[in-house]
Known about the structure:
disordered N terminus, 43% helix, 5 domains, membrane
Amino acid sequence: MAPSSPKFLAFSLFVLVVDHAMGQVGVSVDQVDEQVAIMVSKVVEHHLAGCHLVVATTTQHTPVFFSTLRKVASGVEAVVVVEMEALFTSQDSPAQQRLLQEVWGDARATCRALILNLNKDSHLAFRFLEATGVWQWPETRVVVVGERTQVKVVLHHPSLRNTIHTLYLAFYNLALYACEAHTPNTRLRMTRTEKARVCQQQQHVVAAARRESVEVYRRCLYCNNGDADIVFLYLWPLTSANNHHYHNQLFPERLENFMGHKFVVVTLPYFPFIAFEKESEEGGALSPRDSLNTRMINTMARCLNFTYMFREPLDGTWGVPTTGGNWTGIVGDLQHQLVDFSLDLTPTAARMEIISFTRIYTDDPLVILSLKPGPLPRYLALLRPFTRQLWLMVMMSTTTLGFTLWLLQKAWSWVSGGSGLWLSTAHFYIWGTMLENPPDNAPANLTSRVLFGLCLLTCMVINIGYRSSLIAHLTVQSKTQPINCFQDLLKEDNWAWGSFEFVGTTFLYFNESFDPLIQRIGNEKETLGASAGLERVLMGKFSFITSKTNLLTDVVSLYADRYGNIPFHISTTHYQIQGGDAWGVRKGAPFLRQLSKMTQRMIEVGMIDRWTKDVVYTHITLPRSRTHDAQNTVYSQESDDPVVLGLNHLQGAFYLLILGHSVSLLILLGENLTQYLACRGRTSPSTSPAGGEPRLVPHLLEENLV
């Protein structure tokens, strides 16, 4: 199972058994071995039932090892035995890594356990714990059985620095009571009889030691004013291994009280989520201001009893990957265990490989800020009921119908010998029908009448749709098309866009995307600050890309009028470049579950949304600028009262009427001019032979009379 598996993190349990050397002293230790094995087996029975067991040993031939293995093997799903001495003395490093990775296998057990057996030297034990990465999984349960002299050495070892449940069962060192042939003070004066008597006394002491209780210690992570300390629990008699009273008190650690522990928190300003003030220009500690994360951490500090200290990352960035697997900024500080946790950090797949995250509590998507759509000119209201494509279809269909009617009449006149229609007359027929003024004399033949009837039906549907849409466009002010997505930015002519300098997840989103559209937006954007970007938007032909919550705070504070209206349009498309906002936590932190649990409670009771709105509204100052009020009133004032149409609404109709009169006048002038030129061409300027009055050409005179 992978180290990041939730099942492994939740249920993995280590049992570390440190054997004490008793086989070299000449004392029978069978009963002691059996008692040790019984006690460990009872711990396994109560806390490791059904676990996948890994047994690692430094020396294979120890009585305690075999007694313990025999006792616990019956209560677990599987047993894997690893010889540490052979493992770490091997020169094949890839084989070592492969074996360490496969130690836990892929068992289907509900938990996992490890029994580590070794002699006095604990070097291999600590090396094994570091190699298996116990510090990355704080939920593991560690039980150490060993000599009293190694309590502090084991429980304060860095490999167990994050382990929440660590017990130490301290037995007496029976080697101290072993039968020795002489002592430093009686080496020359003791006889054989005296030596035998001393050995017999020491054996009685050993027998008494067998009946002594086991001293149970535990490592408390946050006991000594918030620091780690060793706490003595109770004496556990060897003969009372079946007593449930002792088993229920083995793992009391719940981390519901951090005892005033001081956490080091790294963060960067990002209002309204994070806000702080620097205590000095040279850096150092930060003074938190009112913000969403400040309210969250203050609530957690009161409930869990801890304190904290803010500081900025060493390089002042959120964090991006560099060469060698290292990260910069906040992520880098967490990766190298320099701080405990961070505020408001975005989880990504790459970041989750090196640090942990709490429960996601909010999100802040990217939006596009543009100038609010302005009103379209009223004189074009007659054209707006139909789109360009629909107007084009009406023109084409009307022309086609007129031409078809002319062809049908032409064919009918050629067959029947009757009179046909001029092409212009056929078109006037169709256009008159479209304008609800059809001609009185309909076509005589049946074919043209069927076509004319279908034309009437089509024109009726088009006219009904046009009239209903025209009323809406005359009463409601139409506006320009808003910018709602990245595609709209590229469709506009001579349009530019800008944003802050891309950092963190925003930088990764625009630079690691395979979408050509996203790449183009990122490559062609201008880098601007908030004030400069908003001013450019007010000038027109420009959009500003930034996060929604942070953007609203600046916009409302600077440009809202007394009614809360702003002259900007926020895109309806929200680009979720991240999974949400959470707190970043260093790998293996034992307080991760408590922070996530508190965050989940705040989400469930609705405090996150309430605090976010409250922080934004508290820090917004609405200006009273008459310029902004006048600018916003044009676009924001709407009324539910009936709209009375006036000259402003119908100006397009009068413009159309004036256009019709002008075109008619031009056509009249053109016809008269054409007729005048034709008359002059047909008039003969010749005179009579005697020089009398000029006479007209006979055929011209006849035509004029007709």
